[in-house]
Design a protein that fits this description.
With about 110 residues, this protein is an all-beta fold. The protein has no helices and 10 strands. It has a 6-stranded mixed beta sheet, with no helix packed on it. The protein has a 4-stranded antiparallel beta sheet with strand order 1-3-8-7, with no helix packed on it.
């Protein structure tokens, strides 16, 4: 069963940092493309970052140069390091895989 579980969200001040984690089970994690997505209230789902099985990465324009996606295939874990956070980064962040699985998400709130 494709299961993804995110953690690491929280409340942070503008300019702060957070690191999100997504632990995967039931999937061949090491050979899959994995995504971080986010969705804010009243807005469409947005692809934040993508990492391929070979480590190649891509980012949404809004987060480029501030966020870093990475993976640890030995731990079946996906990460998102977020720096210089802005209020507009406030959203539920969730991971997804190319098999169609997605997690429940973790809330990130950026506010003074």
């Amino acid at each position: 069963q494709d299961q993804l579980a995110e953690s690491g969200g929280g409340l942070v001040q503008p300019g702060g940092s957070l690191k999100l984690s997504c632990v995967a089970s039931g999937i061949p994690f090491s050979i899959l493309t994995m995504d971080w997505n986010r969705q804010a209230p009243g807005k469409q789902r947005e692809l934040v970052a993508r990492i391929h099985y070979n480590g190649g990465t891509s980012y949404g324009e809004a987060v480029k140069d501030r966020f870093t996606i990475s993976r640890d295939d030995d731990k079946n874990t996906l990460y998102l390091q977020m720096t210089n956070l802005k209020p507009e980064d406030t959203a539920v962040y969730f991971c997804s895989d190319e098999l169609g699985g997605r997690g429940q998400g973790t809330q990130v709130t950026v506010s003074a």
